[in-house]
Amino acid sequence: MKHLSSLQLCAFLDDVLVGTPDDGTARHLATCTICRARYETWCHVDDSLRELLGQDPDEHAMEQRMSWVQIVVTAERKGLPAPEFAVLRIALPPQLPAPPPVQVFPPGRAPGFADPAPRTTTPEPLKRPMLHSPILESQALAQRASASSAPTPAAPRAARQPAQPPVAAGANPSAPPPGYARMPRPPRKGFAAFVSRPGMWIALALVAVLAGAVPLGVARFGIPVIKFGFKSGHERDADVKPAGDEKSDGADDAEPARKGSAKARKGAPDDPGTQPDASVLFDLPALEPEDGEPDPGATDAAPTRPGKPADRDTPARSGPTLCGEVHNPQGQPVEGARVYLTSPPRMVRTDKSGRFCISCPQGKRTIRIEATGRAPVTRTVQMGSTKLETRFTLVPVN
Amino acid sequence: MHPHSLRPWTEPGRDHDLVIAAQRGDLAALFTLLGAHRDTLWRLCVALTLDQARAERLFHETLVRAAKSLRSIPADAPVLHWLARLATHLAVAWSRHEGPRTPDEPTGAWPVTDGEAPLFSHDPRLLATLERFPEPDRLLLLLTVVERLSYGEVARVTKRDAGEVVRRLTELREQLAGEVAA
């Protein structure tokens, strides 16, 4: 009897044989003990291989392995350095034995432990972030007071009752105790925020002070006038001072002088009391009329102020004064002759009687007399501290 | 028809859409494709390395290499064939580079929490015999005995001749039976 070959046995084992070969092999294995023992050994090996190599992996472990692959592949797709497998595969720590179940006992009833020492004071309340509040501070004081009156250690445990929250003196007992600190109020808005600003109140006070001080200042000092350095022609004319009013100064004489100057420009009336004084004192050189032009100032010899005749011989001020008379060779007075003082530059005109009077500082001064149709005369005088009287004679020009 | 012919080893067109999407850069399709064959590939890696720690490393490296080499997946064959060959090449390369596992080398037993039983805790003689076999021979035994593929399927996966597959498979079984019977 011929035994089965290894190829026949392997093919029969893998179910590759079909038809007559498969049936013949099966009949031989049923009758041949040697081939059947060999076949059984091979079957045992296959079963062992399937048992060893055919195990289905753990689902959780496979999920973890796939996650490692996803990490590496995703990192490589993004161009990042992929972690090594040794970094990813971290051995899990050995599982520790489960701890014994926890037995829960009521407070102070656990076996094997002595009764803990009773508390002598009430437990401290939980500390919360608190703000300064009179209500809370009073409550804290009341709690300290109640702590001192806590039950003694000798009191039985059952007699202990949870301490009631003390009520502050003057507080409403029915009101719920404040559990949390009072929160700061939200910031005000609108008109309330505008009113609550201290700067606004300061500004209002300043406005009120100014509103009361301005009328008082106007009533006391008047409305302030802003003056500039430039003066127009008519404003300079307003500054003309009458020659006979030199000893008076200030704003009191400004208005009459201005009136007198205006009247002198218009032409003097016959009334000598109201005629403006032609011999006025100019601080600046005045415009002189041309030869042959009527000189309105020559007719103004009257004093400026009515009721106050001009006193040519009286020094205008306390300083020295140069006075004199201008005559022609026949001894008649020359009216309207121009009297110049070189230093300081001043000019006056003679009146109808040919007299003039000009304020002149002390020292050596030069005076020049001019008149239309007459030769000018120049003379140097030594001015003292008092009045100086001189006489001039103007000779007609041929 | 072979009762196991419907398994992923013999369904060439089942992963076609996923392969195309993965080749276009779809990571979700790639992970779906790899996850569909993870259990089979894991058994293959265990058979090739005969060590749980090495099997884990081979499994990880095979999938990473597969993600990098998506363009080389053949269109007329199941993806699992390509993955099996890739894992075998890696295992052979590592075996040549690192040598066989030494007796002092830790076997990398699974943690208890993983829920997997330790390998080869049944018959140490069978384990010792399998360790002497080269990786392609272990692949033959796995595909034939465990995966129950036909000789033709095994020949296509390993790209070897069918007669050679049968002849080598017979030799391996004889050696294993001789070791177990002794």
How would you characterize this protein structure?
The complex is a heterodimer of chains A (398) and B (182). Chain A has 398 residues and is of the alpha+beta class. In chain A, 32% of the residues lie in helices and 11% in strands. Chain A has helices spanning 6-13, 20-31, 33-53, 59-77, 85-88, 134-148, 190-195, 198-221, 233-238, 254-266, and strands spanning 321-327, 338-341, 346-349, 355-359, 363-371, 374-383, 388-393. In chain A, helix 2 (20-31) packs across helix 3 (33-53). The N and C termini of chain A lie far apart (196 Å). Chain B contains nine helices and no strands. Chain B has helices spanning 16-23, 27-36, 38-49, 52-68, 79-98, 124-132, 135-146, 151-158, 162-181. The model of chain B is unreliable at 1-6 and 108-115 (pLDDT under 50). The chains are: A alpha+beta (398), B mainly alpha (182).
Helices and strands in order, then pairings?
The complex is a heterodimer of chains A (398) and B (182).
Chain A: H1 6-13, H2 20-31, H3 33-53, H4 59-77, H5 85-88, H6 134-148, H7 190-195, H8 198-221, H9 233-238, H10 254-266, E1 321-327, E2 338-341, E3 346-349, E4 355-359, E5 363-371, E6 374-383, E7 388-393
Chain B: H1 16-23, H2 27-36, H3 38-49, H4 52-68, H5 79-98, H6 124-132, H7 135-146, H8 151-158, H9 162-181
